[in-house]
Amino acid sequence: MEDPNQTFVSGSFMALYTKGGRPTAPREDIEARYDFCDDLATQVAEMCRTVQFSNNLSETASLKTCFDGLMQPPAAASPAETAWVMCRVAELLEWPVPPWLTEQVAAHGEATRQR
Questions:
Q1: 3 backbone φψ class: left, alpha, beta (φ>0; ψ -120 to 50)
Q2: How far apart are CA 83 and CA 96, in angstroms?
């Protein structure tokens, strides 16, 4: 029976915590990380927009600036989660996901699944 209080976790985020079709962490932990990362994406989206207009940057440059900032220690999210957050930011802002970010998702997502 499905828990009605269960948080929806997107397939793209769930992929960060799946290996061989099976979750690599308890559902509660994955839901907590998803909630955190989705909230972070909402906050970073506003920051990206501000960075873009304040510094007269392209959408891609703004995403890269924010991504680089999130990767600085102490990082609140893993590299794979950070790449996911930035893809979510692009989605929220209705900006295209740049190729460098797609590469980050592939690289960090694969490293997460190998654990």
A1: beta
A2: 14
Block residue for tokens 């992929």: 15
| Distance from chain centroid for Cα 115 | 18
> Distance between CA atoms of 109 and 92, rounded to whole angstroms?
21
Domain residue spans of the chain: 11-113
Give the integer Cα–Cα distance in Å for 113 and 59: 29
Token pair 């979750």 in the structure block, residue:
23
Strands 22-23 and 18-19: antiparallel
Q: pTM score, two decimals?
A: 0.88
| 43 CB-near residues (< 8 Å, 6+ apart) | none
Q: Which helix (H) or strand (E) holds 19?
A: strand 18-19
pLDDT tens, residue by residue, 89-112: 999 999 999 999 999 888 876 544
Residue with tokens 């510094």: 55
The token pair that represents 87 in the structure block: 């893809």
